[in-house]
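Quick question, first post here. What does this chain look like in 3D?
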Amino acid sequence: MINEKVKAFLDEKALGDRLTEHTETIDTVEHAAQQIGCSEPEIAKTLSFVVDEKPVVVVMAGDGKVNSSKFKSYFHTKPHMIPRDKVKEITGFQPGGVCPFAVPENIPIWLDVSMKRFEYVHPAGGNEFTSVKLTPAELEKASGAEGWVDICKGWEDDNL
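> Answer (accepted):
Ran it through. Tokens below.
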């Protein structure tokens, strides 16, 4: 079932047709890649953190892992994820379906440069059965991201 709030949000940006509903869960990078038919790194995973007692969302490539020192140098604190049982209350989405669209306005969204190496990335679309196919530039514009950060390890690209 498509998240109507996310669909309306993407429709306003003329991107509603990019939503795909899947028959199986896409709640992990592995499951999402299998359902979408892309590589795991092309999955745009959306993680929610607490920075200065406020929520922050970071979207990164599926093969990226948060580098604590890079995170701390940018956000001036160690990375602390929002507790799983608080994710829906804070972001409006269940874990496995958190996306960078239609989140509460007080939550800044940051994009990690690890996604820039792909023609398309696939973030969740508001639940664990829906994805969105976007270019990194479309993701930046549609999400209203604050900007790009470099806080991941586990991937490398000499061209960035």
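The mean pLDDT is 94.
The radius of gyration is 14 Å.
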